[in-house]
Amino acid sequence: MTQTRELGSPSRRRMLASTGGVVALAGLGGMNRATAAGAQATAAAPAAKPLPEYAKWKNADALIVHSANTIETKRGAFGSSVITPSEHLFVRNNIAPPSLDIVKDPDAWTLEVAGVARPRSFTVAELKTMGLAALPMVLQCSGNGRAWFPSKPSGTQWTVGAAGCVIFTGVPVKAVLEAVGGMSEGMVYMTSTGGEDMPAGLDPKDVMVERSVPVSALEDAILAWELNGQPLSLAHGGPLRIVVPGYTGVNSVKYIKRLAFTKEQSPAKIQQTGYRLAPVGAKGESTQASIWEMPPKSWINTPSDPAQPVKAGRVVISGVAMGGMTAAKTIEVSINGGKDWQPAQFVGPDLGRYAWREFALAVQLEPGTYQLASRSTNAAGESQPEERMENNRGYLNNSWRDHMVTIKVA
Q1: Could you give the C-alpha distances from 170 to 115, 116, 154, 226, 230, in angstroms and in order?
Q2: Which terminal residue of the chain has fewer beta carbons within 10 Å of its beta carbon, N or C?
Q3: Sign, CA torsion 149/166/61/374
Q4: Which residues does 223 contact at the CB level (< 8 Å), separation at least 6?
Q5: Helix or strand or coil: residue 371?
Q6: Are the CB atoms for 89 and 233 separated by under 8 Å?
Q7: DSSP assignments along 42-62, one per residue
Q8: Stretch 133-156: mean pLDDT, rounded?
Q9: What is the rounded CA–CA span in Å between residue 405 and residue 351?
Q10: The whole model's pTM is what?
């Protein structure tokens, strides 16, 4: 069996971050909150691309359509209520989604479970009788922040908008595993296979969406049929999606049709050479670290548009902070490009270790130009680094300097 390092392992993460209290926001009443309406407004091209048919229900004004399979949330559209509205949530598909017909009768969708004591298939209707869990979590594309890599990696040039904090609802994978007598002996990975239609004339291994993660990831994983209180749409993996909290979005496979516990990682290209931590200029190889766990990260959403001057005086700087595999514990803000830092406050509900936290800091700003940065530290003591971790495909960018914004105060 090929041994592949887990990128998010404690020893690995310590190489990526330096070490750096949930408190209520107090004393900010009556202060002028800098407008977020213009954030990233200039990012949309004059002739904006239309939403694809399967995502027509989304709010086009809140999104940047890069392609039919890549749709980004504008920085100013996250809001400040912790949960990202479904109509504002980004979309990322590795290949074209299946027909909308598959969500007409979601309860009839079938999932095969293999690599267990009693292999069998379940309909979504049957899964709904086996347990229920609601999972607040950050859903984030592996390439979120790719636009700032100087090597210009191929792929969608995401800034911050390939992420959101949502609530998935479904059945715990542990409950399903118990119903089939547990996994077979010696299994190392949990492997999920998507239900997209395979293009004719191609080797399925070259295009199929099938991802393997360590079996330890099943602890909090669920098979979800609902997002933010609504049936899971085709745009987000309906009728059924596996959700692996703390891991990048590609590991939460959409339209899941098969869940297998395996001794080896999937032979699919997306697993063997795709989503690997390859050096700049090199191709992905199965011996390189797989893109699994997310590191701590944060960014400022308001104010964030250099084209929209902020009125001098009291200003509230706000944004979001995540901890990755553990909760975001502290958040700091700098108004001078990282020369000095001061603690900000978490605001709003704490939805658990996998969700992000809203943060805010009230400051007095005189006329001038300011570089605003934020830096999150998680419960394991891991902080955002100043510099990105260079790699060939622009994965896992959590550099606080890259995410910094420049504003003008007048």
Answers
A1: 21, 21, 34, 7, 12
A2: C
A3: negative
A4: 111, 127, 170, 171, 173, 176, 240, 241, 242, 243, 256, 259
A5: strand
A6: no
A7: GGS-TTPPPPPGGGTTS-GGG
A8: 98
A9: 27
A10: 0.89
* Residue 21 or residue 75, greater confidence: 75
Q: How many helices (H) and strands (E) does the chain have?
A: 5, 21
Per-residue pLDDT of 179-229, as tens digits, reads 999 999 999 999 999 999 998 899 999 999 999 999 999 999 999 999 999
Residue 159 and residue 72: Cα distance in Å, rounded?
9
The CA-based angle 149-153-159, given to 5 degrees, is 50
Please name the residues in contact with 60: beta carbons below 8 A apart, sequence gap of 6 or more.
48, 50, 51
- Determine how many CB atoms are found less than 10 A away from the CB of residue 133: 18
Terminal alpha carbon distance of the chain: 61
CA atoms of 364 and 316, how far apart (whole Å): 9
Average confidence (pLDDT) over 27-52: 51
Per DSSP, what are the bridge partners of residue 376?
A: 331
Q: Sign of the CA dihedral 361, 362, 366, 367?
A: positive
Please give the backbone phi and psi of residue 253, each rounded to the nearest 5 degrees, phi first.
-65, 130
Question: Could you tell me which residue, 17 or 250, shows the higher pLDDT?
Answer: 250
112 - beta bridge partners?
121, 258
C-alpha dist (Å) from residue 155 to 67, 275, 313: 11, 12, 41
- 7, pLDDT greater than 60: no
Output DSSP code: residue 125: H
Which runs of E-coded beta strand occur in 247-338?
256-262, 297-302, 313-322, 328-334
Quote the tokens at residue 248: 């990048």
- Residue 31 and residue 271: Cα distance in Å, rounded? 49
